[in-house]
Design a protein that fits this description.
Largest sheet of chain B: 10 strands, mixed
Number of domains of chain B: 2
Largest interface: A-B, 68 and 62 residues
Helix content of chain B: 25-40%
Low-confidence stretches of chain B: 1-42
Number of strands of chain A: 6
CATH architecture of the largest domain in chain B: 3-Layer(aba) Sandwich
Distance between the termini of chain B: 66 Å
Low-confidence stretches of chain A: 1-23
Radius of gyration of chain B: 24 Å
Order of helices and strands of chain A: HHHHHHHHHHEEEEHHHHHHHHEEHHHHH
Number of helices of chain A: 23
Strand order of the largest sheet of chain A: 1-2
Helix content of chain A: 40-55%
Oligomer: heterodimer
Mean pLDDT of chain A: 92
Mean pLDDT of chain B: 86
Number of helices of chain B: 14
CATH topology of the largest domain in chain B: Alkaline Phosphatase, subunit A
Structural class of chain A: mainly alpha
Strand content of chain B: 15-25%
Amino acid sequence: MKRREFFQFKRAVAPPSTGLKVSRRTNTGLDVYSSSWNQDDLLHLLRRVTFGVSKGDVEEFSGLNLEKTIDKLLDTSVVSAGEPLNHYGSRLTDPDVKLGESWVKAPFNPTLEGVRKQSMKGWIWSLALNQKPTAFGKMLLFWHNHFAVEMRMVPSASAFYHYWKVLSDYSLGNFKTFTRQITVDTAMLYYLNGRLNRKGAPDENYARELQELFTLGKGPDSQYTEDDVKAAARVLTGFTINYRTTPFSSIFSANRHDTDDKQFSSFFDNTVIKGRTGINAGMDELNDMLDMIFAKEEVSKHICRKLYRYFVYYKIDDNAEANVIAPLAKIFRDNNYELKPVLKALFMSEHFFDSWNRACVIKDPLTHSVNFLRQFEVKLPSASNIETLYQAFVFGASYTAINQMDLGDPPSVAGWEAWYQLPLYQRSWITSDSLPKRNELQDYILWIGHKIGSYTMKVDVWDLTKKFSKPNDADQLIDDAIHFLLPMSLSAGQISTLKNILLPGGIPDYNWTDDYNAAINDTYPNHATALQSVTLRLASLYKAMMNLSEYQLS
Amino acid sequence: MKRRSFIKTAAASSVLPVSLNGMSLRSYQKGSLLSALSKRSAKDKVLVLIQLNGGNDGLNTIIPLDQYAKLSKARSNVLIQESSVLTLKSNKKTGLHPKMGGLQNLYANDKLNIVQSVGYPQPNFSHFRSTDIWMSASESDEVLTTGWVGRYLNKRFEGFPEDYPNANMEDPLAIQIGPLVSLAFMGPEANMGMAVTDPSSFYNLVDNAVGDVPSTPSGDELAYIRMLAQQTNEYADVIKAAANNGTNKSAKYPTGVRSNDLSEQLKIVARLIHGGLTTPVYMVSIGGFDTHSAQVDDTDTKEGSHANLLGQLSTAIEAFQDDLELLGISERVTGMTFSEFGRRVQSNASTGTDHGAAAPLMVFGDAVQPGIIGNNPNIPDATTVSDNVPMQFDFRQVYSTVLKDWFELSSTEVKDIMGADFNTLPIFKNSAANLEDFADFMTQINLRSVYPNPSRGHSTVNYSTDGGGVLSLSLYDPMGTRITEFFNKPHQAGEHAYRMDLRGLKAGNYIVQLKSNLKSFTEVIQVL
């Protein structure tokens, strides 16, 4: 299928008025997408499910059908994250950790927690940049947004790393177990005051968010009461932080636990959680409570709605609710809250590939920055120079933070507004402040480059250009570049504007061909000037495409 | 990364949004727009550059009637019938393409100055390289990463872009109607220009429209981003204000949707200038001049693609000048055409012409000294496919003149920007020399004869200098590559002769150039 026919339609199609074809609203659901599986479909999938697509990523999936592609995307066995490293050793002495070594098991050290957190942020960013082509990275961000913890509120960087490790372990695992583990996670016990929650002085903070944000949500069918919050807080009494271990850990302190029975409301069928004593009391009661909460269909619907907003579109209409959310939630429940079957059903669905739902997600800041660097295959410093490497990571994290996503420090326990706040949702990523900054990173890395010692983070436009099918053919190059860089086709006017960059004033196409050939072959007498001129025009072409509003979408 | 670095790079792609948005700086909150507008001086001068993309065929634009017989031999299939050529007031030797009635009027009204055979030594025949040379004002074999306008603006507006916009300069330093900002506007620190993609994006901005988007979720999001993109351009407000404050008055602009893209662009420029924008430099462009084939209609050489382009150019410039006069701002504005090169003397078999060297350049406006600078090009008796119009004036002489006489820079400042001293030309009324003086001045040296011609072995050049001074004599091949410099030495006033050794040269036409530091003369010599 040709690029121009990029969108495929379940139902009747209206004639196109612009580069985008217009379709009528469709009623697609979770039926497996059955149209012939092509490159555009693959690109759509990878754009949504990963942090940006390199040519190499596309290669990895060549020859795989839809199902095998999804299986590969959900295969986490290839993921090995490693641990964040000491990148500060030449500036600050760490008595416990050498430069280049992991600090995650090191003792708490008030003077070093700040730089360790910086290392953590850079490392988180690097996970996205160095993602294997799987859904793992994107799901990590999903969970960091869902089970949000602000690192700045957690004194210990190691504790935050442990929280991140839980996110990693369960990113594509069992959501119910995940919820249990996060409930007793050290960083979470800091952040939502669980450590202070004890018999006689309950702290309801976590108990509330567990229901309101983490499981049941605030949908119309989520009818838990204030008394349920109070009862849940009493269930969770006794979990606190053990400061005597290295690093700090979570612990259940039986003598801080409220051993009375906990009565829940009619929403929970008047369930009573039996008060228990002893060292296992907390975990037993927590398990009972999670059984009670997870018995409510709202949990599965809440999570599926969030997944839908994250991967498909932020507006959930009646069709999506009936034909996507409801059956997806059922799959979730039927599979005892395992995540992979849910994601597989969503990613294989005709709804996911529906033309109506393409190119309508505004890239979040992490996806935007990483996507650009991956598309253009910007090289990282050698891993042997840990300081330079981490400076590059921290630069990436800082830039993402300037663009409204401070990795490790979401704005609140509810996560980033773009994924929950009516009515703007994802549109809140795009402001008169953030949109120029999005372009600045690209300007900077494309034209000038970020220098760290002898390393420069800079785009070499040839890395990508040489992978296109016929770059010495201007029309083909533009077509390939649109296809690869943008989620939608462009209007004839936009294409002619782009072509004017390669061939100003409508000069014949062979001028581009001749110059390109001279630029890649140093036996041509005009090789040097052609190389300079062609390089400049390629950068201008790509920048013009990235300046398009279309580039903000995926 | 430092804020400063962001800004520097950001400005490099400041493009007015809508279909393209490269904006990168913050929105600038103005104090009082009206008070700012009223502070503006009517004496703020504006330069409007009109780029003819593709390489304009100068010999069919400004037609050397005294060479007509030779032109008939060299390019009969594209040559305009002599009787159709438009005549110029008190100038029998030179005429205009029949479609350039508008420019004929401008010339008759003393608003047009034509500089003959503008080019540069060692011409490059690649569109891109030659365009870069013109934009950057570099030597033929030199790569400069800044543009001549950018270097000028950098000198005039210190500290850009960090401290801009500011109370003294709220407006863009340069505006280009086009998808990207030209190399000409690139300064040492940042690109000094902003781009308005095309006229429709300009009107979208003014009307708060976002262009066509489909009625899908994707289209909804796209419209939202485009709307934000418009708001984020730091100059969007001043441009909208100027557009709303300004108007067009000329009835000479062609009507109909996009019937003349260049006039659409110039119309916007006039409106913005009238609306109070103090931007000193604009660049507009018209493409299609790369006329390798079907430059003229087979049956009528005054029709065809090149004729259409010249017609659009002429109509657009006439309407623009008329508009400026009706709006009362014509004394502030000078316009100048340029193209990356001219075309070959000899036409090809497909009624077209191939990439060439020097070509005429036009400067128009109230301030110009009307007339023609330089002589008609010398056309060889017998041409080959390689023959080019040799350069009489370096394009950097024209730029230097604009900087010195229009923007009123000192010679030292001009030299800083241009990298060397280039003798200025009598383009403007306030230029140091007037046209007649310049004509006298040109006679101070004279290439009297080259004999024998055609030659085999040796030929003697007879020349004279009235005032004496350093003269050089060089030989170029038809593509403009210098083969040898015979001498470069001081001369006494009087008559001189030099015997050139032409042995070993391949048969063909060559160009003999006699040059002082002020002026050059060329003659074509045929080696047998």
